[in-house]
Design a protein that fits this description.
This protein has 156 residues and is of the alpha+beta class. It is 41% helix and 21% strand. The longest helix is centred in the middle third of the chain and has 16 residues. InterPro entries: MLTR_LBD (IPR041413).
């Protein structure tokens, strides 16, 4: 999987496990989100980072909407495993640590993934616009590879 991520060099990409632990990433993703390489492995979970890392909050200009969207996608993907994941240590820590997570968790909103435009406010590169895509490798269906490809400017 890491070789695939590395082959996508120039396009920020990462892989996540069913509990949304980030299991691999490439250098372009590390340039977008430098903390991925330094955060403790036990905290290298996409939900944890979205709801607790101030860098991520600043990176996402629409953080409130995006964070809730991520949680809705997590719920949709968990499906029948949601009860088990709700008891997972990372979810329990988020419920204790993050008021926005607690509020969003109580909403029970579910929404499937859709490729879409993502905008980031990078501290060194300014506004970055990407199309957000996700793939599930046939030989690793338990992982998802998330890829950001450059997006054109809006018409107008």
């Amino acid at each position: 999987m890491q070789r695939l991520l590395d082959a996508l060099d120039g396009f920020p990409a990462y892989a996540i496990a069913p509990d949304w632990t980030i299991t691999g990433w490439n250098t372009a993703y590390a340039a977008l989100y430098p903390n991925v390489a330094t955060v403790a492995p036990s905290e290298r979970n996409l939900l944890w980072l979205v709801f607790t890392d101030p860098y991520v909050r600043d990176l996402l200009p629409d953080w409130e909407t995006t964070s809730r969207g991520f949680l809705a996608e997590f719920r949709a993907e968990a499906g029948p495993r949601l009860g088990d994941l709700a008891r997972s240590p990372i979810i329990q820590r988020l419920l204790r640590t993050s008021e926005p997570f607690r509020t969003a968790w109580q909403d029970h909103h579910i929404e499937g993934f859709a490729s879409r435009l993502r905008v980031f406010h990078h501290p060194g590169q300014g506004v970055l616009r990407y199309e957000h895509h996700r793939l599930a490798p046939a030989d690793h269906p338990d992982l998802h590879v998330v890829i950001y490809t450059p997006a054109g400017l809006p018409p107008g």
